[in-house]
């Protein structure tokens, strides 16, 4: 039989989280962001749960092609735009919308031959300092695009660097930069990522023609953790990483477990060996020492890891689960069969990272199953 590990994708949770985004959006349209292969879930696996969105946003033209093959006929946005002039041929063929964030992309459009003009999102650098036109150059870029017969419509766009911050000062500075650069320019706007959608959607998405761009919230992770938990926003986990216990050991008092003897038993205790390790995408740096472990559910009961994470195995304390045995199910994050939930944000926080990384780190060797519940 195959190794007992799987990532379950919960279609019902995807649809429920999309509904949360739509309620928060204040009447604006919703892009479902499915970049990075739908945050590690698989675009084909999330399509049914997210096809209630108004459009899909992603990075790779090949991912856009997959969505068209799945049957999606609505808008698709390339969030980083075209990487090469030839990508515009793909945009024309697949009817893709695309972001414009530097002058060369405008040059490519000006030279592009197309029967149908393109819809573009013109990106402002409002403080993230990655992509986008500086505020002083934004209006000139808009005028260039507006003059091109290859362009059918321009949406005013930015990406907020501090929408998840507890202190709103930096966020307000970005919003002021956007307001100043876009003053009196016509067209819909797209400002809100996940955090801004939840916290400010009704304020920032002022028109039904505006767009919000939720990503991580769709997958049941809080965009401003630990300020708010996923449950605070009413978000449900969309991925459950589960594996079975493949061995049970009894440690004598003073015995240690795993590489480097990172955990030493203070008394006799049972531990379980889980068929999951860092080669499956579980974070190697997740703590399991005597001072602190990483939370895990065994048969739906909360316990903790003990010892270091190794390539293929994790060891867990079975003291709270005395009936656990070989074949018992460990939920590394997500939803257990008894309804107990271990937020991916909590696991990520213990490991000093974010839920985004854990989702995207799922290894190809971990099979994925889509489940209704």
Essential attributes:
373 residues; alpha/beta; nine-stranded mixed β-sheet; TIM Barrel; 2 domains; eight-stranded parallel β-sheet; 28% helix; 11 helices; 24% strand; Lyase, Ornithine Decarboxylase, Chain A, domain 1
Q: What is the number of strand segments?
A: 19
What would CATH call the homologous superfamily of the largest domain? Alanine racemase
Number of domains: 2
Roughly how much helix do the residues carry, as a percent range?
25-40%
Beta fraction: 15-25%
Task: Indicate the radius of gyration in whole angstroms.
Answer: 23 Å
- Global geometry: elongated
The CATH architecture of the largest domain = Alpha-Beta Barrel
User: What's the number of helices?
Assistant: 11
CATH topology of the largest domain: TIM Barrel
Spatial separation of the terminal alpha carbons: 25 Å
Report the structural category.
alpha/beta
Low-confidence stretches: none
Quick overview of this protein structure:
Helices cover 28% and strands 24% of the residues. It is of the alpha/beta class. It folds into 2 domains: 26-213, TIM Barrel (Alpha-Beta Barrel), CATH 3.20.20.10; 239-371, Lyase, Ornithine Decarboxylase, Chain A, domain 1.
Describe this structure in words.
This protein has 373 residues and is of the alpha/beta class. It has two domains: 26-213, TIM Barrel (Alpha-Beta Barrel); 239-371, Beta Barrel (Lyase, Ornithine Decarboxylase, Chain A, domain 1), CATH 2.40.37. It has eleven helices and 19 strands. The chain has helices spanning 11-24, 35-39, 43-50, 61-70, 87-94, 103-111, 135-146, 169-182, 194-204, 344-350, 355-360, and strands at 5-10, 29-33, 55-58, 76-78, 97-100, 118-124, 151-158, 189-190, 211-212, 239-251, 256-257, 263-264, 269-274, 295-298, 301-304, 314-317, 329-335, 341-342, 368-371. The strands form three sheets. Strands 1, 10, 13, 14, 15, 16, 17, 18 and 19 form a nine-stranded mixed beta sheet that branches. Strands 8-7-6-5-4-3-2-9 form an eight-stranded parallel beta sheet. Strand 3, helix 4 and strand 4 (76-78) form a beta-alpha-beta unit. The radius of gyration is 23 Å and the shape is elongated.
């Amino acid at each position: 039989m195959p190794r007992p590990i799987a990532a379950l994708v919960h279609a019902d949770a995807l649809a429920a989280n999309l509904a949360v985004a739509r309620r928060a959006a204040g009447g604006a349209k919703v892009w479902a962001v499915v970049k990075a292969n739908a945050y590690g879930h698989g675009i084909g696996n999330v399509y049914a749960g997210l096809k209630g969105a108004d459009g899909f946003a992603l990075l790779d033209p090949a991912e856009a092609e997959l969505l068209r093959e799945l049957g999606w006929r609505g808008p698709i946005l390339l969030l980083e735009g075209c990487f090469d002039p030839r990508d515009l041929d793909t945009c024309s063929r697949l009817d893709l919308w695309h972001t414009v964030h530097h002058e060369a992309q405008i040059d490519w459009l000006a030279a592009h031959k197309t029967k149908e003009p393109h819809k573009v999102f013109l990106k402002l650098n409002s403080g993230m300092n990655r992509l986008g036109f500086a505020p002083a150059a934004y209006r000139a870029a808009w005028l260039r695009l507006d003059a091109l017969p290859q362009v059918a419509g321009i949406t005013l766009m930015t990406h907020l660097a501090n929408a998840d911050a507890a202190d709103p000062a930096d966020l307000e500075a970005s919003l002021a930069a956007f307001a100043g650069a876009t003053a009196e320019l016509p067209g819909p706007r797209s400002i809100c990522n996940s955090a801004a959608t939840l916290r400010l959607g009704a304020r920032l998405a002022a028109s039904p023609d505006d767009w919000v761009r939720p990503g991580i919230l769709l997958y049941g992770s809080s965009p401003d953790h630990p300020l708010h938990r996923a449950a605070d926003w009413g978000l449900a986990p969309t991925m459950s990483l589960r594996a079975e216990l493949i061995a049970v050991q009894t440690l004598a008092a003073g015995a240690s477990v795993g590489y480097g003897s990172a955990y030493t038993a203070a008394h006799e205790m049972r531990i379980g060996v889980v068929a999951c390790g860092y080669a499956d995408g579980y974070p190697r740096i997740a703590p399991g020492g005597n001072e602190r472990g990483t939370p895990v559910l065994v048969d739906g009961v909360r316990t903790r890891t003990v010892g270091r994470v190794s390539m293929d195995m994790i060891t867990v304390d079975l003291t709270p689960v005395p009936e656990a045995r070989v074949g018992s199910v460990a939920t590394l994050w997500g939803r257990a069969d008894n309804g107990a939930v271990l937020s991916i944000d909590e696991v990520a926080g213990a490991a000093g990272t974010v839920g985004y990384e854990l989702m995207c780190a799922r290894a190809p060797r971990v099979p994925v199953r889509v489940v209704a519940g």
